[in-house]
Write a structure and sequence with these properties.
Elements lengths: L3 E10 L5 E5 L5 E6 H5 L6 E7 L8 E5 L6 E5 L12 E5 L5 E8 L1 E2 L6 E3 L11 E5 L11 E9 L3 E4 L11 E6 L5 E2 L3 E6 L6 E4 L10 E5 L13 E8 L4 E4 L24 E4 L18 E2 L3 E5 L5 H5 L9 E9 L3
Antiparallel strand pairs: 1-24, 2-23, 3-4, 3-24, 4-5, 5-6, 7-23, 8-14, 9-10, 10-13, 11-12, 11-14, 12-13, 15-22, 16-17, 16-21, 17-20, 18-19, 18-21, 19-20
Length: 335
């Protein structure tokens, strides 16, 4: 029997973001080839990554161009080269705890629209990642809420809370990176705004994944003003992926205006939440019509890391935008 039987392989074109690849079963080793970099001669460009059990998640043995030529050298991602540490390969089990380590580097949250968070370094973050804010001085109302980040701003030290309302500026605090969504779809989502309109438009803090026809219920505490919305259920009638909003068949035009709480309110309010419920209004071909959280999206797989920092992305397994990536994963006997 082969010592390293391949169970799955594939390829993709990098979009410059971390790439998560579900596979048919758990794996013991992964190989990744950046075909674009292999064919080129860019100094410090990674060409091949190899991970097996025994290496830590996020690491890999890597080959790279040591000069502006076809010369190949070898290192590991966590040791790095050219003064940088690179992003390797990480196993993922989405049924496990999705919450990353506490990051204590928040130094400010701005009152921009959307708010911008300043930290020591965004090297471990990419556009579209999800973070959970914790105990930010002057912005305690953000505590425990998940946000999609970076579509508006992602620099070496700043990232935007993409779909958040404007707040009074905050200072030092913490955040955690959320590695993957909750296990069951549709997901409960936090609310940052609700319009007063004949058909209420609801903005959610994380890229939501809802579809037209799904039924939802609202939890809105008095700290948000629009208490009339609390406990109401409605059907989603429209989706806007640019603004990350859903329109529901609830007439909120006469409701008290929705306003995000202040930091002083943080000790006495529950977050505004939209939760999937009940059955859809009509059957959809090939789909179960019970639209509360019944779809188990769990998977085993691995993540190929990259970075918003172009120099780090150049040597990372997920590649840079438009790189052609080939991968192979398999099982083996372990001693």
């Amino acid at each position: 029997m082969a010592y390293n039987t391949c169970i799955h392989q594939g390829y993709f074109t990098s979009d410059g973001k971390d790439k998560i690849i579900p596979v048919r079963s758990d794996v013991d080793w992964v190989k990744v080839y950046n075909l674009t970099n292999i064919a080129g001669a860019t100094q410090w460009a990674g060409t091949e990554w190899y991970w097996q059990r025994g290496l830590v998640n996020g690491d890999a043995i890597t080959n790279y161009h040591a000069a502006a030529s076809q010369i190949i050298s070898t290192s590991t991602c966590v040791i790095g080269y050219n003064g940088a540490v690179y992003k390797g390969i990480s196993l993922i089990d989405s049924s496990s705890n999705p919450v990353g380590a506490l990051d204590a580097t928040v130094t400010a949250v701005s009152n921009a629209t959307p708010p911008v968070v300043t930290i020591t370094s965004t090297a471990n973050l990419n556009v579209g990642d999800i973070v959970r804010m914790i105990n930010v001085t002057g912005a305690q109302q953000l505590g425990g809420i998940d946000f999609t980040i970076g579509n508006g701003t992602l620099t070496a030290t700043d990232f935007s809370l993409d779909y958040m309302a404007t707040i009074v500026a905050g200072t030092a605090g913490y955040f955690r990176k959320i590695d993957f969504d909750p296990l069951y779809y549709p997901r409960r989502r936090f609310i940052s705004a609700i319009s007063a309109a004949a058909s209420a438009v609801v903005k959610l803090t994380v890229t939501h994944g809802y579809t037209v026809g799904q039924k939802v219920r609202f939890t809105v505490s008095s700290a948000y003003g629009m208490v009339e919305m609390n406990g109401l259920a409605g059907t989603i009638t429209a989706i806007n992926t640019t603004t990350n909003t859903v329109t529901v068949d609830i007439n909120s035009s006469a409701f008290t205006p929705f306003a995000f709480p202040l930091t002083a309110d943080a000790v006495k309010f529950s977050h505004a939440i939209m939760t999937p419920i009940g059955e859809a209004t009509e059957a959809v071909t090939g789909k179960v019509i019970l639209d509360d959280s019944v779809y188990n999206t769990g998977y085993l797989g691995f993540k190929l890391g990259t970075s918003a920092d172009a120099a780090i992305a150049l040597g990372s397994s997920g590649g840079t935008a438009n790189d052609a990536i080939k991968w192979i994963a398999g099982k083996s006997f372990n001693l």
